[in-house]
Amino acid sequence: MKPVIAPAFKAAFPQTVPIMTGFLFLGLTYGIYMHEGGFSFWYPCLMALTIYAGSVEFVIASLLLQPFDPWSALLLTLVINARHLFYGISMLDRYRGLGWKKFYIIFGMCDESFAINYATKPAKDIDHGWYMFFVTLLNQCYWVAGATLGGVLGGLITVKLPGLDFVMTALFIVLFLNQFLAEKNHTSAYMGLGLSIIALIIVGKTYFIPVTMVLLIIGFTIDYRRKGATARDVD
Protein backbone atom coordinates (compact mmCIF):
# COMPACT_ATOMS: atom_id res chain seq x y z
CA MET A 1 0.00 0.00 0.00
CA LYS A 2 1.32 3.42 -0.92
CA PRO A 3 2.42 5.45 2.15
CA VAL A 4 0.25 8.51 2.77
CA ILE A 5 1.25 9.81 6.21
CA ALA A 6 4.85 10.86 5.54
CA PRO A 7 4.12 12.71 2.26
CA ALA A 8 1.22 14.55 3.93
CA PHE A 9 3.46 15.61 6.83
CA LYS A 10 6.17 16.81 4.45
CA ALA A 11 3.60 18.85 2.52
CA ALA A 12 2.02 20.33 5.65
CA PHE A 13 5.13 21.33 7.57
CA PRO A 14 6.42 24.10 5.23
CA GLN A 15 2.96 25.69 5.23
CA THR A 16 3.02 25.97 9.03
CA VAL A 17 6.53 27.42 9.48
CA PRO A 18 5.32 31.06 9.46
CA ILE A 19 2.68 30.11 12.04
CA MET A 20 5.37 28.47 14.19
CA THR A 21 7.29 31.71 14.62
CA GLY A 22 4.20 33.63 15.67
CA PHE A 23 2.75 30.92 17.91
CA LEU A 24 5.99 30.28 19.76
CA PHE A 25 6.40 33.96 20.56
CA LEU A 26 2.78 34.61 21.51
CA GLY A 27 2.57 31.32 23.43
CA LEU A 28 5.74 32.28 25.29
CA THR A 29 4.15 35.57 26.26
CA TYR A 30 1.00 33.78 27.37
CA GLY A 31 2.96 31.36 29.56
CA ILE A 32 4.84 34.20 31.25
CA TYR A 33 1.56 36.09 31.66
CA MET A 34 0.03 33.08 33.41
CA HIS A 35 3.03 32.79 35.73
CA GLU A 36 2.78 36.47 36.60
CA GLY A 37 -0.82 35.72 37.61
CA GLY A 38 0.42 33.12 40.09
CA PHE A 39 -0.15 29.93 38.06
CA SER A 40 2.26 27.02 37.72
CA PHE A 41 3.64 26.13 34.28
CA TRP A 42 1.25 23.21 33.86
CA TYR A 43 -1.75 25.57 33.78
CA PRO A 44 -0.84 27.19 30.42
CA CYS A 45 0.28 23.78 29.14
CA LEU A 46 -3.03 22.10 30.02
CA MET A 47 -5.11 25.04 28.77
CA ALA A 48 -3.20 25.10 25.48
CA LEU A 49 -3.90 21.37 25.06
CA THR A 50 -7.60 21.45 25.93
CA ILE A 51 -8.90 24.96 25.15
CA TYR A 52 -6.54 25.89 22.30
CA ALA A 53 -8.00 29.30 21.57
CA GLY A 54 -5.37 31.96 22.15
CA SER A 55 -7.54 34.98 22.85
CA VAL A 56 -9.92 32.95 25.03
CA GLU A 57 -7.00 31.54 27.01
CA PHE A 58 -5.86 35.06 27.87
CA VAL A 59 -9.38 35.88 29.01
CA ILE A 60 -9.71 32.67 31.04
CA ALA A 61 -6.44 33.51 32.79
CA SER A 62 -8.05 36.62 34.25
CA LEU A 63 -11.35 34.85 34.98
CA LEU A 64 -9.52 32.24 37.08
CA LEU A 65 -8.50 35.05 39.44
CA GLN A 66 -12.11 36.18 39.89
CA PRO A 67 -15.09 34.59 41.73
CA PHE A 68 -16.35 31.42 40.03
CA ASP A 69 -18.77 32.41 37.26
CA PRO A 70 -19.12 29.67 34.59
CA TRP A 71 -21.90 31.49 32.70
CA SER A 72 -19.70 34.53 32.11
CA ALA A 73 -16.90 32.26 30.93
CA LEU A 74 -19.27 30.46 28.56
CA LEU A 75 -20.69 33.71 27.19
CA LEU A 76 -17.26 35.26 26.66
CA THR A 77 -16.03 32.13 24.89
CA LEU A 78 -19.04 32.08 22.56
CA VAL A 79 -18.69 35.80 21.80
CA ILE A 80 -14.95 35.70 21.14
CA ASN A 81 -15.00 32.51 19.06
CA ALA A 82 -18.34 32.96 17.29
CA ARG A 83 -16.44 33.36 14.01
CA HIS A 84 -15.57 29.64 14.16
CA LEU A 85 -19.21 28.85 13.38
CA PHE A 86 -18.75 30.42 9.96
CA TYR A 87 -15.35 28.75 9.52
CA GLY A 88 -16.97 25.38 10.20
CA ILE A 89 -19.79 25.90 7.75
CA SER A 90 -17.36 26.72 4.94
CA MET A 91 -15.36 23.55 5.68
CA LEU A 92 -18.23 21.04 5.83
CA ASP A 93 -17.60 19.59 2.37
CA ARG A 94 -13.86 19.21 2.97
CA TYR A 95 -14.40 17.36 6.25
CA ARG A 96 -16.62 14.65 4.76
CA GLY A 97 -15.18 11.16 4.68
CA LEU A 98 -12.18 11.89 6.92
CA GLY A 99 -13.09 9.32 9.56
CA TRP A 100 -11.70 9.85 13.05
CA LYS A 101 -9.37 12.61 11.83
CA LYS A 102 -12.38 14.87 11.35
CA PHE A 103 -13.00 15.16 15.09
CA TYR A 104 -9.52 16.41 15.86
CA ILE A 105 -9.43 18.77 12.86
CA ILE A 106 -12.71 20.32 14.05
CA PHE A 107 -11.39 20.69 17.61
CA GLY A 108 -8.10 22.21 16.46
CA MET A 109 -9.47 24.64 13.88
CA CYS A 110 -7.93 27.97 14.84
CA ASP A 111 -7.76 30.98 12.51
CA GLU A 112 -4.36 30.02 11.13
CA SER A 113 -5.17 26.35 10.54
CA PHE A 114 -8.42 27.31 8.85
CA ALA A 115 -6.61 29.76 6.56
CA ILE A 116 -4.07 27.13 5.47
CA ASN A 117 -6.53 24.26 5.07
CA TYR A 118 -9.02 26.43 3.20
CA ALA A 119 -6.65 28.32 0.92
CA THR A 120 -4.00 25.72 0.07
CA LYS A 121 -4.41 22.61 -2.04
CA PRO A 122 -1.80 19.87 -1.72
CA ALA A 123 -0.66 17.89 -4.73
CA LYS A 124 -3.04 15.26 -6.08
CA ASP A 125 -0.91 12.42 -4.70
CA ILE A 126 -1.13 13.86 -1.16
CA ASP A 127 -3.94 12.58 1.08
CA HIS A 128 -6.01 15.69 1.81
CA GLY A 129 -7.31 14.40 5.14
CA TRP A 130 -3.87 13.67 6.54
CA TYR A 131 -2.62 16.99 5.16
CA MET A 132 -5.27 18.96 7.11
CA PHE A 133 -4.64 16.78 10.15
CA PHE A 134 -0.93 17.59 10.23
CA VAL A 135 -1.49 21.30 9.58
CA THR A 136 -3.79 21.36 12.59
CA LEU A 137 -1.56 19.19 14.78
CA LEU A 138 1.64 21.10 14.01
CA ASN A 139 0.04 24.46 14.75
CA GLN A 140 -1.28 23.23 18.10
CA CYS A 141 2.11 21.75 18.96
CA TYR A 142 3.71 25.15 18.34
CA TRP A 143 1.19 26.83 20.63
CA VAL A 144 1.50 24.23 23.40
CA ALA A 145 5.30 24.37 23.23
CA GLY A 146 5.35 28.16 23.42
CA ALA A 147 2.85 28.30 26.31
CA THR A 148 4.67 25.60 28.29
CA LEU A 149 8.07 27.18 27.68
CA GLY A 150 6.71 30.56 28.77
CA GLY A 151 5.33 29.03 31.97
CA VAL A 152 8.70 27.41 32.73
CA LEU A 153 10.74 30.51 31.92
CA GLY A 154 8.33 32.62 33.94
CA GLY A 155 9.47 30.72 37.02
CA LEU A 156 13.11 31.43 36.19
CA ILE A 157 12.67 35.15 35.62
CA THR A 158 13.44 36.93 38.87
CA VAL A 159 12.61 40.46 37.74
CA LYS A 160 9.08 41.81 37.66
CA LEU A 161 7.53 42.49 34.26
CA PRO A 162 5.12 45.38 34.82
CA GLY A 163 2.46 45.91 32.18
CA LEU A 164 2.44 42.29 31.02
CA ASP A 165 -1.29 42.10 31.75
CA PHE A 166 -1.75 44.57 28.88
CA VAL A 167 -0.84 41.79 26.41
CA MET A 168 -4.47 40.65 26.12
CA THR A 169 -5.68 44.20 25.47
CA ALA A 170 -2.93 44.74 22.92
CA LEU A 171 -3.86 41.47 21.19
CA PHE A 172 -7.46 42.56 20.68
CA ILE A 173 -6.37 46.03 19.54
CA VAL A 174 -4.08 44.47 16.90
CA LEU A 175 -6.84 42.13 15.72
CA PHE A 176 -9.27 45.04 15.46
CA LEU A 177 -6.81 47.25 13.57
CA ASN A 178 -5.92 44.42 11.20
CA GLN A 179 -9.58 43.86 10.38
CA PHE A 180 -10.21 47.61 10.14
CA LEU A 181 -7.40 48.13 7.63
CA ALA A 182 -8.51 45.13 5.58
CA GLU A 183 -12.07 46.45 5.17
CA LYS A 184 -13.11 49.06 2.64
CA ASN A 185 -16.35 49.80 4.47
CA HIS A 186 -15.81 50.58 8.17
CA THR A 187 -19.48 50.66 9.17
CA SER A 188 -19.23 47.47 11.24
CA ALA A 189 -16.13 48.71 13.06
CA TYR A 190 -17.69 52.06 13.93
CA MET A 191 -20.88 50.35 14.98
CA GLY A 192 -19.00 47.94 17.23
CA LEU A 193 -17.07 50.73 18.92
CA GLY A 194 -20.07 53.02 19.32
CA LEU A 195 -22.47 50.41 20.67
CA SER A 196 -19.82 49.04 23.05
CA ILE A 197 -19.28 52.49 24.52
CA ILE A 198 -23.03 53.07 24.84
CA ALA A 199 -23.54 49.72 26.58
CA LEU A 200 -20.62 50.38 28.94
CA ILE A 201 -22.07 53.76 29.92
CA ILE A 202 -25.59 52.40 30.43
CA VAL A 203 -25.01 49.12 32.32
CA GLY A 204 -21.37 49.29 33.45
CA LYS A 205 -18.51 46.86 32.86
CA THR A 206 -20.18 43.85 34.53
CA TYR A 207 -22.96 43.34 31.98
CA PHE A 208 -21.88 45.43 29.03
CA ILE A 209 -20.72 42.45 26.90
CA PRO A 210 -24.12 40.67 26.62
CA VAL A 211 -25.87 44.03 26.19
CA THR A 212 -23.38 44.98 23.48
CA MET A 213 -24.01 41.70 21.66
CA VAL A 214 -27.77 42.30 21.67
CA LEU A 215 -27.29 45.85 20.39
CA LEU A 216 -24.90 44.63 17.69
CA ILE A 217 -27.35 41.97 16.48
CA ILE A 218 -30.08 44.61 16.25
CA GLY A 219 -27.75 47.11 14.58
CA PHE A 220 -26.38 44.66 12.01
CA THR A 221 -29.89 43.40 11.23
CA ILE A 222 -31.11 46.94 10.57
CA ASP A 223 -28.02 47.69 8.45
CA TYR A 224 -28.43 44.44 6.48
CA ARG A 225 -32.07 45.19 5.70
CA ARG A 226 -31.22 48.77 4.75
CA LYS A 227 -28.59 47.59 2.30
CA GLY A 228 -31.02 45.01 0.88
CA ALA A 229 -33.68 47.68 0.36
CA THR A 230 -31.13 50.00 -1.28
CA ALA A 231 -30.02 47.22 -3.66
CA ARG A 232 -33.64 46.53 -4.65
CA ASP A 233 -34.23 50.24 -5.32
CA VAL A 234 -31.17 50.36 -7.57
CA ASP A 235 -32.39 47.33 -9.52
UniProtKB/TrEMBL annotation:
Pfam families for this protein: AzlC
UniProt membrane topology term: Multi-pass membrane protein
UniProt main location, coarse: membrane
GO cellular component, one term: plasma membrane
Subcellular location: Cell membrane
Transmembrane segments: 12-33, 45-65, 71-90, 102-119, 131-156, 163-181, 193-222
Keyword field contains Ion transport: no
Assigned keywords, A-Z: Cell membrane, Membrane, Transmembrane, Transmembrane helix, Transport
Entry keyword annotation includes Membrane: yes
Biological process (GO), any one: L-valine transmembrane transport
Family as reported in the entry's similarity comment: Belongs to the AzlC family.
PANTHER family named in the record: INNER MEMBRANE PROTEIN YGAZ
Protein name: Branched-chain amino acid permease (Azaleucine resistance)
